[in-house]
Amino acid sequence: MKPAAFDLTLATSLDQALAALAGEGAKPVSGGCSLGPMLNLRLARPAALVDLRRVGELRTLTRGTDFLEIGAGWTHAEIEDGVVPDVTAGLMRRVAHGIAYRAVRNRGTIGGSLAHADPAADWISTLSVLDARLVIRSKAGTRESAMGDFMIAAYTTTLQPDEVLAAVRVPVLSAGAKVGYHKLCRKTGEFAQAIGAVVVDGARGFARVVAGAVEAPPLVLPGASEALGAGDAAGALAKAEEEIEAALAGHPEAFRAIHKVAVARAFSDAGIA
Q: Which of 70, 161, 260, 265 is the most exposed place for a label (fewest CB within 10 A)?
């Protein structure tokens, strides 16, 4: 099939893109890796598309005292290749390398993936475990959002029709930080069936454990995170299993089991269990 007819704006500035998005039925597009197939299947029928690939303001890199602000237009491949500096002890570069296939990584963007909000996508879980913040722009100004507040449900975020996800503020991890990430999928390149992610950075007093690909926003596991921050890795893993069991009680036993396995392997990957 082919997409239904739509108007197209090739935006060259963020102001131009935001002005075009003010039109009724307009939708932004960057890499198009998710929206493209939806258009062809006519699952999405926007009246207009606003192409963001030429917007230079979405490809900035700004280093703060304790964060790196990454423009939403940077591709997975550029993160994988180190064109975008990795301030997360190698976590973001490794995650980017495991996204789909190189052809997808060459076009897909970090901002597009987050805005699409597929629960099984990698960046949603990765940036949740890092406790990143999002910079969102509209004609009315700029607002920030914590990752935990951004995704409401599968494919649903707090982004309004006239807003654009402009950048991601990623915390700079210390040299001694430990990070782990593991996803279970049937074969390379597929979306995850379960994701486990863990970060512990003693120098920053930060520890977090996340179970992702749960058909909803990622599960930040508070009890496991607290135990890990206290240095009790075994207790943290046991607590993670308890919290996954409780949070996913309405799912089949196998679904709960693979998420426990993903988290356990993330602990092992981080060298903390």
A: 161
